[in-house]
Design brief:
249 residues, alpha/beta, D-Maltodextrin-Binding Protein, domain 2, ten-stranded mixed β-sheet, 8 helices, globular, signal
C-alpha cells in the first residue's frame, strides 16, 4: 500500500474508532448515499452488508437517503464518500468513482402488465409499447434509451397507478434477484411477466479520495460472501423491505 493510502486508512480508522456520532460528541463518519425511493430489498440489503463490513474495519458509516440522480452528482463531486448500490457502468462514466469489486446483490428488471395484455417478453420487443419505469434508475435508463415511448414515474406506487390507468402498457421495476415479487394486494388487475427481462450485478462505489479503503472493504465483503453471511443479511433485508427506510437498516 502506498504511504498516502496507508495514512488515509489509519486516519479513517482513528476517526471512527469510537461509537458513531452523538449530540454531545460528534465523530466523523463516512457518508454513503442510499436510494430514497427504493421499495425493494436492494437498498436495505446493501446497507446491511456495508454496515457490517465497515464495522469490522472499525469505521463508522452513515447512509443518506437521496434521489438517485442527486446522489450521483453529489458523490461524483466529492460531497459524499460513496454510493451504496450501483451498476458498474455508473463508475465507467465517472472517473472519480471506484467500484468495490464484490457484488452486493444482483438486480432483476421485472415487467408488469394489465391482466389480459399480450406483450413481448424481452426488452427488444418493447419498442411499440409505452414503457413506464422509476425515475433516476441508471440501469433502466440505459436499457431503455432506444425506446421511443418512455414514461418516468416518481415511485413504484405511481408506476403501478399509471399502469392501471392505461397511461403505460408495461411497468418495469428493479428488484433483488431471488426477492419475492410485489405483494398480490398491490397487483389488483395486474400480472407479472413470467421471467426477468434483464439481470445485472450491483456494487458499492467509493469516491477516489477513499481509494485506500478499497482493498480492505473488498476483502471483508468477500469473506462475508464466502461464509454465507451476506446471503443471510440480504434475506433479512428482503423480509423487512416493506418497512420505512428509518426502520430497515
Amino acid at each position: 500500500m502506498r504511504g498516502s493510502s496507508r495514512r488515509q486508512l489509519m486516519l479513517a480508522l482513528l476517526a471512527c474508532s469510537l461509537p458513531c456520532a452523538t449530540a454531545a460528541e460528534p465523530v466523523a463518519a463516512l457518508r454513503f448515499a442510499t436510494d430514497a425511493n427504493d421499495q425493494s430489498g436492494l437498498a436495505p440489503g446493501a446497507r446491511a452488508l456495508l454496515s457490517q463490513a465497515f464495522e469490522r474495519l472499525g469505521i463508522c458509516v452513515r447512509f443518506e437517503p437521496l434521489p438517485l440522480r442527486r446522489s450521483l452528482r453529489m458523490t461524483a463531486q466529492g460531497q459524499l464518500d460513496g454510493e451504496a448500490l450501483r451498476i458498474r457502468a455508473v463508475a465507467d462514466g465517472h472517473p472519480d468513482l471506484l467500484v468495490v469489486p464484490v457484488p452486493l446483490a444482483s438486480v432483476e428488471v421485472r415487467g408488469y402488465v394489465r391482466r389480459g395484455t399480450s406483450i413481448a417478453h424481452d426488452l427488444a420487443g418493447l419498442a411499440p409499447w409505452r414503457v413506464g419505469y422509476p425515475r433516476g434508475v441508471v440501469l433502466l435508463e440505459g436499457l431503455l434509451v432506444q425506446l421511443p415511448r418512455r414514461v418516468e414515474a416518481t415511485s413504484r406506487h405511481d408506476l403501478l397507478r399509471l399502469l392501471r390507468a392505461g397511461i403505460v402498457d408495461v411497468a418495469l421495476i428493479t428488484a433483488a434477484a431471488g426477492e419475492p415479487g410485489i405483494d398480490a394486494a398491490q397487483l389488483d388487475g395486474l400480472v407479472a411477466l413470467p421471467a426477468p427481462l434483464h439481470v445485472a450485478p450491483l456494487f458499492a462505489l467509493l469516491h477516489a479520495r477513499q481509494r485506500g479503503l478499497l482493498p480492505h472493504l473488498a476483502g471483508v465483503l468477500q469473506q462475508m460472501e464466502d461464509s454465507g453471511e451476506s446471503a443471510r443479511l440480504r434475506n433479512e433485508a428482503w423480509a423487512g423491505a416493506a418497512q420505512p427506510w428509518s426502520d430497515a437498516r
